[in-house]
Design brief:
The chain has about 300 residues and is an alpha/beta fold. Helix content is about 40%, strand content about 15%. The strands form 3 sheets. It has an 8-stranded mixed beta sheet with strand order 1-4-3-2-5-6-7-10, with helices on both faces. A two-stranded parallel sheet has the order 8-12. It starts with a strand and ends in an 8-residue tail after the last helix. The N terminus and C terminus are likely disordered.
Length: about 300
Amino acid sequence: MWLKDIVPEVNVKTVLVAGAAGYLGRYVAVEFARRGYRVRAFVRDAEKLKVPGHGLSPAIHGIVHDVFVGDATAPETLRGLCDGIDVVFSSMGLSRSGGKATWEDVDHAGNRNLLGLAIGAGVGKFVYVSVFRPEAMPAGEVVLAHERFVDDLKASGIPYAVVRPNAYFSDMAQFLEIARGGHLFWLGDGSGKINPIHGEDLATLCVDAAEGDAKELEAGGPEMFTYRTLFELAFQAVGKEPRITFIPLWLGEAALAVLRLISPKLAGGAAFFVEVARMDNDAPPYGSHRLKDYFMQAETATVTPNRNRP
């Protein structure tokens, strides 16, 4: 369903941003628009584009050229979605479990529906955001759904690029929330490495991928942390002394085994976090945004009226 439309400029490329209401999708829409593209946002709820999003990401209602409202898991709502599109970018995926939809429904089948439309409309390139080092996380349903679509994309014949970030700054905001509560629990000993990336920095890389020749790109931010130092930074940002309890990894693995018996759906998501805890997430560094600055901005936002908390 069309929400609004603007007459396109002559010889200007049009990009479809699927997942435009998400943290990364908002920044990607801004970056494509900055480079002169006509941007079509694909969302389920257009009203969300009028306000800032999760993790301090920007409102983009006045930036995109048109908005297509539909549901990637319901093909009957997608008619005309890719008409006139030169590039498809997708960071579309299930943000959390708990509803009727599964990661397979959205991350794999939903993106596969989008891919079919892109091929049928003669789209020139498809850029997809998947996960970092999927081979190290073979059990998680989140990862499996992403990588099933990557396989579909590679086999489709359409020119493509797969971007693999290790973690977003918005993901790190959860540690601020926990630090505000005064006590953080983590699987493992906290020595694992990670260099999360800001959405604006990653958006630049994603648009570069749309315009370049690389098939796969891995990326993290410019600063490397251990989980311990990252957690300490979160406590520092909220003005509290660090209280961190590290739980032996084997206990988390045992709990996951029990959860698989009780609720396989919830276990599919939990497996992702267990696997993340046991691996290093040190990706090639990119960008310039610093996590300390982001944490301080997030803290300011908690006491500033009319701003979304990260």
